[in-house]
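Late entry, written up from scratch paper. The run itself happened at the end of the previous shift, but nothing got recorded in the book at the time, so transcribing now.
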Amino acid sequence: MQVISFHIDWVVIVASPLVAALWFVLTYSVTSAVTGGRQPTFKVKAFLLFGFLFVWGAGYTMSFTATFGLSPQTLWISLPTWGVLVAVFAWWRYRRAQRQPNAASEPPPQSG
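Output as recorded:
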C-alpha cells in the first residue's frame, strides 16, 4: 500500500483562479476590441462564462495531479472529463433557456 503525502501550497490554490481571471480579462478585452466596445451578445457571454469555468477547473485538475503525485496519464482522463462536464452544463443551460420564451434573448438596447 502506497501512502500519498502532499503539502498544500498556496500558490497551487491561488494560481488557477488567477489564470482563469487573466483569461477572462484578456478574452473580454479582445471581444470588446472586436465589437467596437458594444455589449457582448448572449452567446459571447456564455462563451466567456464557460471558458472561464473550463480554464479554472483545468488548472485545478493539473494542480491536483501534481500535488498528489499522480501520473501524467491521469490528465488524459481528467481533463477531457472536466471538459465534458462543462459542455454538458452549458448544453443544459442552453436547452433550459430555449424552453423558456424570451429567457435567452437580450433586453432591448437602452436609449440615452
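Residues 73-99 form the longest helix (27 residues).
(Scratch paper discarded after transcription.)
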